[in-house]
Write the structure tokens for this entry.
Amino acid sequence: MSNWIKNGEKSRQNTSFIFIMKDTLEIIDLHAGTKEGKEILRGVSLKIKKGEIHAIMGPNGGGKSTLAQVLMGHPDYVVTKGKIVVNGVDITAMTPDQRAKQGLFLGFQYPVEITGVNFGNFLRMAVNEIHDPKVKKLSPIAFRNQVEPIAKTLGFSEDIVKRFLNQGFSGGEKKKAEILQLSMLKPDFAILDEPDSGLDVDALRYIGSAINSLDYPFGLLLITHYQRILHYIKPQFVHIVVKGKIVKSGDSLS
């Protein structure tokens, strides 16, 4: 019990105390919607521990991508009830960059092209900013030595770090670039919003292989419409989201 933290607040649903474990991403009775007042998430609760892979599935418009955006703090959405807690820290009111420093990562469904921003410089600055300030910052040479083997695993050529961020990338390259960022940033918890969207079998295999080869413990929330990615990335738990709620959960064999 030494690694449990008492929240100090009583649950709104009952009188028992809420306990929050370290090395855990907890979504507690999360309600959220647009600034215009449209409710999309209607009480999502989920606990993800480091080392676990959870898959979120369900029909279009059910709130899967909204959940990803809300977890990362997208300004177009408002949390009206509930909490998001990472490693015992309530991040519900934090900005996206603060959430990233607490150990959260989001792989976008539609990565944006940013002209004029060098991908290698962007990623090196992100790695240096997010890691412990007491740790020596990566030099350009040290960064290249780390990133090039990972890029090769994903099927990128060595010039990937010289290109502008996502500019001219195919759909598959954009998704693989997200996984390259995940590999370098080493978050505690990663949310991948439909990483299989628009990918052919080869690109999907590269992504699955890269994620499975990561040699540090992190929790993964994988949002997908299709079962095919689950052949490459094996979840321990699967959750079905319909109309902003998790309506069914089970292990991968259920």
User: Anything to note?
Assistant: The CA atoms of residues 240 and 247 lie 6 Å apart. Residues 1-19 have pLDDT under 50 and may be disordered. The domain at 4-251 is CATH 3.40.50.300 (Rossmann fold).
